[in-house]
Amino acid sequence: MKKLVIGILAHVDAGKTTLSESMLFLSGKIRKLGRVDNKDAYLDTFELEKVRGITIFSKQAILEVDGTEITLLDTPGHVDFSAEMERTLQVLDYAVLVISGTDGVQGHTKTLWRLFEIYKIPVFLFINKMDQKGADRENVKSNLRNQLGGSCVDFSDQGSEGFCEQLAMCDEPMFESFLENGKIDSELIRKAIRNRKVFPCFYGSALKLEGVEEFMKGFAEYSIAPTYPKMFGAKIFKITRDEQGNRLTHMKITGGHLKVKDAIISGDTEEKINQIRVYSGQKYEAPSEVEAGTVCAVTGPIKTRPGEGLGIEEISNAPILEPVLTYQVVLPEGCDPRMIFPGLRQIEEEEPELHFVWKEALQEIHARIMGEVQIEILQSMIQSRFDVEVTFGEGRIVYKETIANVVEGVGHFEPLRHYAEVHLLLEPGEPGSGLVITSNCSEDDLGKSWQRLVISHLKEKPHKGVLTGSEITDLNITLVSGKAHNKHTEGGDFREATFRALRQGLKEAESILLEPYYDFRLELPEKMVGRAMTDIEKMHGLSEISQIEGENAILTGSAPVSTMRNYQRDVIAYTKGLGRLLTTLKGYGPCHDAMEVIKEIGYDSESDLENPTGSVFCKNGTGYLVEWNQVKENMHLEPYLKKKVQMSELNEGSENAPSNSGSISLEEIDQIFNTTFFANQGKKTVWRKQKSASDSFFGSTTYVGKRKDNLEEYLLVDGYNIIFSWPELKTLADSNMDGARAKLMDMLSNYQGIRKCEIIVVFDAYRVAGRREEFADYHNIHLVFTSEAQTADHYIEKFAHQNQDKYKIIVATSDGMQQMIIRGAGAELLSSRELREEIDSANERIKEEYQRQNESKKSAFEDALTSDEKGRMDDMINKSKS
User: Fold this and answer.
1) Is 170 within 8 Å of 198 (Cβ atoms)?
2) CB atoms < 10 A from the CB of 528, how many?
3) Average pLDDT, integer, range 584-588
4) 121 φ, ψ to 5°?
5) What is the dihedral of CA 839, 841, 845, 847, to 10 degrees?
6) Element (H, E) at 450
7) Using one digit for the tens of pLDDT, what is the confidence trace for 421-455?
8) Which residue from 441, 634, 827, 848 could staple onto 809, CB 3.0 to 4.6 Å apart?
């Protein structure tokens, strides 16, 4: 029998749980159709869920449809429980996205759509509430195409020519099949859905059981069961406790099989399985063995954690959706925080994103929380489990830190009869990449077992930055060198040396304070747009009018969470209830008021005894402490970056020796040392002058490597930036954006014929509604339409960074911030004015050359005629005129 694991997901109140109930009822799993408002839904089993009428915890049910066994995972729809939902995505074969026919695509819907793309999950859509007033199928189809893309295909009219035409436009094999046979084979449709080329849409009303059976049959027909390897593997996605307090580890078996009394390895611990439970609602079966494709819960292991991989499975990446606010947990008078803290840690096992922290200096407990609804649920959980009534203080922003330059961090730990030295290369990572930890260390320098130990220590906990003590992120950490002592080194020595190396590197680096940003969509009356844009500018945000519908306008953009978090109340007030603000977490970016935040937090990195920045050396049988800025004067190993620069110089010299044109100037040599070796010296030494963090992060960086004189030239043009910078194109764009875009492409196409370089024109996705990232050619130039989650700036910066050594890159834009970042990527710049002058000048040169050649041809022709022939031609011309 085909086995599938599917999840039902939706924006809150779209009817997700109602659809689950309908599917269970129609499959015969339940005899009575439960309802959320009647508090008798099959999968809303917790009292809190019944009281609030929302799904808080993901649950599973098993049903059978047309020979397919389906494990159905019902997930929370409220944004405050997004982390619980995201953990469930890791084990899904397919997702079912429920959309309200009256509300269409909403803010959280687009967040889910982005997550499906990241996790590469195929999606079926069920458009619910089509029986309600205001639900129009054609309007919904248009909304889906504009917001989610043209691959959302209506499957309610299967087999018709129109249906096949829609499918043919989504995938090349289906297009070819349709051209050859006039129809499309079902197997091709299944593969296209599995490969996320097509997203089937079904319409109906879950409450009235309309369209649900057709959806279930369509899902069973067009889904493909995954194949699993024979070796054991499992992905853990959840930890819970039953009514008796037994710890349950929820997992999906992704390879082989699992038996009771089998041993699993969690981290460095081997633990046995005492019982296997396969849940359906509140009830469960307890088989002695389960095979691949089964979602089950096991008792016995106490060290497992969500996201962990067992057997052949690897650990999952950290959730993308995470809390951006931290709250103080206020205990009632007389309650000892040290007594309740272990219980809170037990809740944290089940909800890892809470991240309970005991702050010794303040004698306070803090937790990270998504929003107000989660606070209420957490209060109820603590009350029911520990009989303690807690409150929460005012929410504060969760800041993070990263670095702006490359440094080498050195940690040394050598008290008497101990020894370890670690060198870590710290490099800025891509935004949103988190910590990427690798090893590039020779086993001749440090044994493999010691290297693994260093890597495991780096991964064992979050690490603090040195500006505010906030968690570091977007950082590539590479073990590049290390040293152990044959007699005196113990495992704990490398733990100390590793942490000290990281802290020492952070102290030397140019640190950047990051804060969370929202992507927002603001719908309001057009006459209020000026007020809204002024507000957003005051919030240090960016906005633009993306759409005007009648008397209403839609503003989109981004802004810091700290300034926008309470803006919904202002919108409701000044629009008199007509405005609506939808926000989704964009990620982290440079803090808009970093100096004020750093001063307010008042963190002193050198007074943080739990995270020391210095190292311990030994002399005359006695250990002594060396400050972070003097560690490199005492370290035992040669600096990695110094060796790298020397090798670079040797290679450069051998490459350029035959030719004087390839020689490196004295200024270039100085730049090599300033951007590599001397950049890693202590801030308090005389080796270099300290730069501000903003200068380092946004300023220019000179890279000296292979000379770019003979490299192929690429001109990257920020399409919409140029259109709105050139007056004639801006005027045209106000009435006809397509016309303005076409005129720009024609001008650049002509320019390419003169300049003879590769030209790439990049357009933001919001200007081409519903498009995912696409590439096209227009005559002799290339076009890029970015994905919905990617701006033209991001694409250009990424291209410049990745190809700076391959091509000579010139970027045409008037965006000041982008210009600074592009300079740092080693690219040249043209402002919109300079580009226009270049094009006009090139056109003028061609025109002059053409006129000169015509004059030359005319003169050469006349010179070849005899005097008699010239006379006869003059007579003919005079006669024709008369």
Assistant:
1) yes
2) 19
3) 86
4) -105, 125
5) 70
6) helix 448-459
7) 999 999 999 988 889 999 999 888 899 999 999 99
8) 827
Tell me the per-residue pLDDT of 122-179, one tens digit each, with 9 for 90 and over. Answer: 999 999 999 998 889 999 998 898 889 889 999 987 867 788 888 988 989 999 888 8
**Distance between CA atoms of 588 and 402, rounded to whole angstroms?**
10
Distance CA 726, CA 322 (A): 41
Strand partners, 556: 521, 544
Question: Is residue 417 helix, strand or coil?
Answer: coil
| In contact, 72 and 126? CB cutoff 8 Å | no
Residue recorded with tokens 């220590």: 457
Region of 55 please: left (phi>0), alpha (psi -120 to 50) or beta.
beta
Residues 6+ apart with CB under 8 A from 626: 412, 614, 615, 616, 617, 634
CB 500 within 8 A of CB 411: yes
- What HEC string does 643-712 produce? HHHHHHHHHHHHHHCCCHHHCCCHHHHHHHHHHCCHHHCCCCCCCCCCCCHHHHHHCCCCCCCCCCCCCE
How would DSSP label each residue in 752-800?
A: HHHH-SEEEEEE-GGGSTT--SEEEEETTEEEEE--TT--HHHHHHHHH
**More confident: 868 or 808:** 808
| Cβ proximity of 716 and 812 under 8 Å | yes
- Whether 500 contacts 412, CB under 8 Å: yes
Q: What is the pLDDT of residue 697?
A: 36
Residue 444's CB is within 10 A of a number of other CB atoms, namely: 6
Q: Token digits for 182?
A: 């006039």
Q: Which amino acid appears at position 12 of this protein? A: V
Dihedral (Cα; 594, 534, 524, 14), 10-degree rounding: 0
pLDDT of residue 371: 78
Give the tokens for residue 510.
Answer: 């140019």
Which CB contacts under 8 angstroms, 24+ apart, belong to 211-214?
211/126, 211/130, 211/156, 212/19, 212/22, 212/23, 212/26, 212/126, 213/26, 214/156
Backbone phi, psi, residue 363, to 5°? 55, 45
Query: What is the signed CA dihedral for 592, 593, 595, 597, rounded to 10 degrees?
Result: -120
H/E segment holding residue 6: strand 2-10
How far is 250 from 307, CA to CA, in rounded Å?
Answer: 11
**756 CB burial (10 A radius; 0-12, 13-18, 19+):** exposed
Confidence check: pLDDT of 110 > 70: yes
- What is the CB neighbour count within 10 angstroms for residue 163? 17
Interatomic CA distance for residues 513 and 225, integer angstroms: 46
Q: How many CB atoms lie within 10 A of CB 211?
A: 21
Side chain identity at residue 766, one-letter code: Y
Say whether pLDDT at 402 is over 90.
yes
Closest C-alpha to 112, from 19, 6, 9: 9
DSSP state letters, 529-550 = HHHHHHHHHHTT-EEEEEEEET
Q: How far is CA 493 from CA 490, 500, 541, in A?
A: 5, 11, 47
Token duo for residue 90: 């890791």
Please report which helix (H) or strand (E) contains residue 844, including its range: helix 832-863
Burial (CB count <10 Å: 0-12, 13-18, 19+), residue 80: buried
Q: How far apart are CA 502 and CA 35, in angstroms?
A: 54
How many residues in total does the chain contain? Answer: 882
- pLDDT tier at 852 (50, 70, 90 boundaries)? confident
Integer Cα distance of 803 and 760 in angstroms: 14
736 SS3 class: coil
Question: What CA–CA distance (Å, rounded) separates 607 from 611?
Answer: 9
